[in-house]
Amino acid sequence: MATRGLVLYLSLAFSAAVLSAVFLFDHHPYVKNSTLLSSHYISTTERVWPELEFSWRIVLATVIGFLGSACGTVGGVGGGGIFVPMLTLIVGFDTKSAAAISKCMIMGASASSVWYNLRVPHPTKEVPILDYDLALLFQPMLMLGITVGVALSVVFPYWLITVLIIILFIGTSSRSFFKGVEMWKEETILKKELAKQQEAVVNSRGELLIDTEYEPLVPKEEKSEMQIVCFNLRWKRLFVLLFVWSVFLLLQVIKNDVATCSKWYWVLFCLQFPVALAVFGYEAVKLYKEHKKRISTGNTESICEASIAWTPMHISFCALCGILGGTVGGLLGSGGGFILGPLLLEIGVIPQVASATATFVMMFSSSLSVVEFYLLKRFPMPYALYLTGVSVLAGFWGQFFVRKLITILKRGSLIVFILSGVIFASAITMGVVGTEKSIRMINNHEFMGFLGFCSSQ
Q1: Terminal CA-to-CA distance of the chain, rounded, Å?
Q2: What b/e sequence results for 47-83 when a residue is b if at least 16 CB atoms lie within 10 Å of its CB, and e otherwise?
Q3: Per-residue pLDDT reduced to its tens digit, 60-119
Q4: What residues contact 232, with CB distance under 8 A and at least 6 apart?
Q5: Can you tell me the distance from the alpha carbon of 267 to that of 274, in angstroms, rounded to the nearest whole number?
Q6: Which of 52, 85, 80 lies closest to 68 in space, CA to CA?
Q7: Which of 87, 115, 154, 409 is the most exposed place for a label (fewest CB within 10 A)?
Q8: Is 0.85 surpassed by the pTM of this model?
Q9: 392-404 burial: b if 16+ Cβ within 10 Å, else e
């Protein structure tokens, strides 16, 4: 299955980078004395918050933020890989503050994108545009992986994170691009077949009718915008997702007031696992039973948008993908969208639903980070409010124009190409910034190995 190749690639890349870092860490001359972990060799980042005032920098940041948010939400990846370099190189924020503001922008764009998608019907079926089954399956594991990834980001050296960004982002963008090319070819064949059917239509007496259009016997009922919104909302499942979000938020807030690496710190950290596993387990059992019931009755229709069979092995595989995607997202500060978007396409979800569902899940993870960053006072409110407002508008209008374009051209593969382009652009921008900073750290003789988790908090 194609998804196995994707996850195998991610796993091997992650493992190779970690092993190389361990080797360099063991042979680094500064690592022999553990007291140096608190010395001047460790890279420290001072807080830099520029004033919000009209200038060419704020104009350029607005344009890039708008385009990044519009394309990022359409692709279902958010755009954090574009926002962080933009905020550091153009506006002048420090890296940590830029990451925090980036989460605000992702949250704003995701929220407006979800609101737009709630007003859009499913392109092919009489089902919600948001796949709640996939959201409930991936959201708990993704959020769990993000908390693990954030913890690892404190330990991992900056150069290693840069290597992971380049390898993973180029890999997923390449795979998404080839997936888009395949879909484009399939859509071209389908459009040619439909054109032939429209050119020649034969009636019941064998007479050839040219350019004849028929009205359906039962006219399709047109739903109002409010009816579509109510149909797309599934309140019970939405409350479950909000419950998971609330529990993770509560644990994070309490954990921030507890001494790092204390007994209660690890208790609160470990409490996230049963919450995520309980919700995932409930949804996994539900999908497995429904799949088994459909097979026994001879119904081969998919339970949800994914075209895979919900066997125990495939469900376990999805759990691994969720945790891996969340861990990489937390480690790289991307929120997991760069992994979840391509993954949904790999398991057979159509682009429109993959984009809507990935953005929906990303809204929960990004908003959780924003609340936590706000409590820690990691970003200035004027900039956060302004750029979040820009992203809200971009998320809505980006969805509007791309959906209209898809309707006109009848090519859902456009979403896949946008997804691939955003990931590739993020690989270039973050790779360049990360390489430049790593070189500067080497020239300044800063510590380049793994840090102790407790000592570096």
Answers
A1: 41
A2: eeeeebeeeeebeebeebbbebbbbbbbbbbbbbbbb
A3: 989 988 988 888 778 777 777 788 888 888 888 877 788 788 888 888 888 888 888 888
A4: 117, 118, 119, 120, 121, 128, 129, 130
A5: 12
A6: 80
A7: 409
A8: no
A9: bebbbebbeebbe
